[in-house]
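ping. complex inputs:
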Amino acid sequence: MDSISQEIYIIVIGCAFFLLVAIGIIFLVLIYQKRQLRYILEKRQLQNQYTEELLKTRLETQEQTLNMVSKEIHDNIGQLLNSSKILIGVAQRRLNTTEETLQTANETLGHAIQELRTLSKSLSKDWLEQFDLIQNLDTEVARINAADGIRLSVTHPSTLTMPKERQLVLFRIVQESFQNALKHSEARNIHIVIEQREGQLHAIITDDGKGFDPDPSRLGFGITNIKMRTALMGGTVQWNPAQPGTEVLIQIPING
Amino acid sequence: MYIIEPIAFLIYVGALTFYAWKIDGTWRYKVLSGYYFLATVLLTWAAFIFYSSSTTRIYNILYLITSLGLSFYFFSLLRDRWKKNIAIISGLATLLYFITNTEEIYFDSIGHVIASTGIVVLIFLYLHQIMNNVTEEPLSLNFDFWYVCIQLMYHLGSFAIFLSYNHFTYRYFSAGNDIKEVGQMLTYLWGVHNVLLFLGSLITWSGLLWIVYRRRSTLL
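pong. complex structure:
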């Protein structure tokens, strides 16, 4: 009896030992999984940071280029055109006659100078930072509508709560979107809607053009730019077919 | 004491049926649920006839269906072909032993050990699989992980009992005048096994309820 009870105690101790081994194995698996998960998340975070930095650098470079183009237009081409306008005026006075063709050329030149100034302003970051997205959009719409053939309209709230820097990036996205519609879709009417909903800003650009080709191999630099800027702001962009044309839906968090 | 076994298996039936019905209707949970139901019927029968006749045959059928049921479960759970083959081999080895071993013995330790060893090997293969495929979903929300861990604790914890129980039953029947005390010791030993089995079934329900609670909180 004593020997059998001793053996049974040994077996019970053996059971306890194996049970502890099993629990130990489970804990090791859990710890390993936790560490691996932490490593994966850190790696992904680093990748995201790298992509974000890359996007920021590319956008900064683009902004600098646009600024440079803006200055060039204002300081160089603008001055040349101004000089030309003055020279035409001098020529008109010397001729003592107001030739109709010369008068029209002078007026057209004046109009071109005005257009270039507006364009230069819309490209300049300094100028954009002084105004909000709504004002900039209205100016841009007025500029496009001044040209014949295209009807651009915009619906927006009276004020936006979005930080200025984000408004600027969004403006570039919207600008790029309707420029795409103007250049490629043969649209006659473009409508832009800006809405604020539950911490998100929605920009919907609808055109009545020939539609959007979703083939990735045929996507141009403009589309890549839109995607890049939207991703940088933590938002999404979708191109949906409309009847007729295309609808671009941009959703961006108001505060990044 | 012997009634704990069918109750534990019945708790498993409830947990697996609930999981297969409400959360994941994959075949492996339905088969597993069927296995636990069959085991509940067998053990209830064993509990009734325990004092009147031998239950050895019932326990032999139990280790066979345990091995076949869990081999199917792991066959479905494991992804690599070679791991699936090991699941087939594990089930077939137990079946082969069951068919070839016709000797009537008190408790078939070898049969139980073959079944348990196969299952423990399959558990290690599954743990290897999840360690090689780390996902963002926490393991605490993975029902398979809960179930496999409980099986590891049960089969590894009961291993020494399965291995030695035949030896002790021989000692019991060859014992002389102190047969009652030896019988009591054996009951205690099997009681340890029953406690592991019962705790396993309760932990399975706890894991299941935790998963349901977490999923609902995430949805809300």
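The CA atoms of residues 8 and 15 of chain A lie 10 Å apart.
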